[in-house]
Amino acid sequence: MRHAEFDRERVLRAAMCTFMVNGYTKTSMQDLTKATGLHPGSIYCAFDNKKGLFIAAIEQYQQDRTDQFKQLFANDHSTVDNLSDYLAQILQECLSGDATKACLLTKSLSEMGEQDEQIKQITCQFLQSWHQSIAQVFDTAKAQQLIPQKSDSQFLAQYLVMGIYGLRTVANTQPDVEVLQPLADKLLADLIRQ
Amino acid sequence: MRHAEFDRERVLRAAMCTFMVNGYTKTSMQDLTKATGLHPGSIYCAFDNKKGLFIAAIEQYQQDRTDQFKQLFANDHSTVDNLSDYLAQILQECLSGDATKACLLTKSLSEMGEQDEQIKQITCQFLQSWHQSIAQVFDTAKAQQLIPQKSDSQFLAQYLVMGIYGLRTVANTQPDVEVLQPLADKLLADLIRQ
DNA sequence: TCCTTAATTGAATACACATTCAAGAATAAT
DNA sequence: ATTATTCTTGAATGTGTATTCAATTAAGGA
């Protein structure tokens, strides 16, 4: 017996970044061997093929984002403050200039959703689960009486998701905090308004 | 002398649709010859290369959208009603299932903005000009006293643009009028609120 | 220590792709 | 009709691609 020599998470994060910057189609196996340090054969041995590595990278991305999200809301602050911090963090990503400024899930869905049913299902499922996590946050806000009891958490979560998608897209053309911050502020205000 | 035999607009719209469905990278010259009915040599004669055809298609897209926009607002209805109709039209596109459900500009910017400076500039410029057209609509709404005089048209336009980006992205995962209509309604309500 | 099993290596393979080009066809001016 | 000009045709070209595979290397059990 012999174990794999590489660190799976490190390899997946390297692949993840490459896919986020170039997109799936424009990322060549050569790009991936350079980014991961693995030889073609090793990639095919561990992940079957380019698409297998892509899916594994997407799953790692989802895992990382879920952990990050949970950590941000794992405190006893006001839920509204946490939401504000969450938006601030997203804005920072949009403005950072590095790979995280794009969301791998929406980018992949936009690129491949039309042609690849499997990618479409995986990304949609992960985006739905993100939506549900946000809905839970609004449920908490209701329990804290920060928003009206008659509020529809599912709807508010959907609206926030829409706003975040929009913010990220605006950031593509206007990566400017002076533009994005007021948008984020109004978005949050419109969400918690009576 | 001899004139080109093909109808330029028809060719550009065919190419446009192909690019919208597949994206630039995944559209092969073979796809384009099939969609346009032109042979490779004719395409290279008329548009230099694949990217030249792509840029021409983007320009045609922008022209078509601008015409459509102007037509929708060229009446003496309440500006708010026109905005409502505009959002309804966008929703219809999102739900139509055909190529128009994606915006060629944002899709291209997301796919190629990172690698191709020229595409980035063209798409950004066209998206900015769209933003300005919407800002003019809010100026009209101010003149009609439908929104407060102190409103910032630029900001409201940016917020609507953000919302439309978001709506289109939500439609990728939830192409459902029951989901999208309430989002569009709240978006409009939040825009014209005192 | 030897042997089985599995991972690693990187050159070789087969294929798809954008692009070219020389020959042919159509047009308009002379 | 002739000629010059330009467009059209589609097979050929060369490059970049994902993938394979036989040889090699390492690890753990007997």
Automatic annotation (TrEMBL), chains A, B:
GO terms for molecular function: DNA binding. Residues 5-65 form the HTH tetR-type domain. Keywords: DNA-binding, Transcription, Transcription regulation. It comes from the Bacteria. Pfam families: TetR_C_13, TetR_N. This is TetR/AcrR family transcriptional regulator. The lineage of its organism: Bacteria, Pseudomonadati, Pseudomonadota, Gammaproteobacteria, Alteromonadales. Residues 28-47 bind DNA. The keyword Metal-binding does not apply. PANTHER family: REPRESSOR OF PUTATIVE XENOBIOTIC REDUCTASE TETR FAMILY-RELATED, TRANSCRIPTIONAL REGULATORY PROTEIN. SUPFAM superfamilies: Homeodomain-like (SSF46689), Tetracyclin repressor-like, C-terminal domain (SSF48498). It comes from Shewanella algicola.
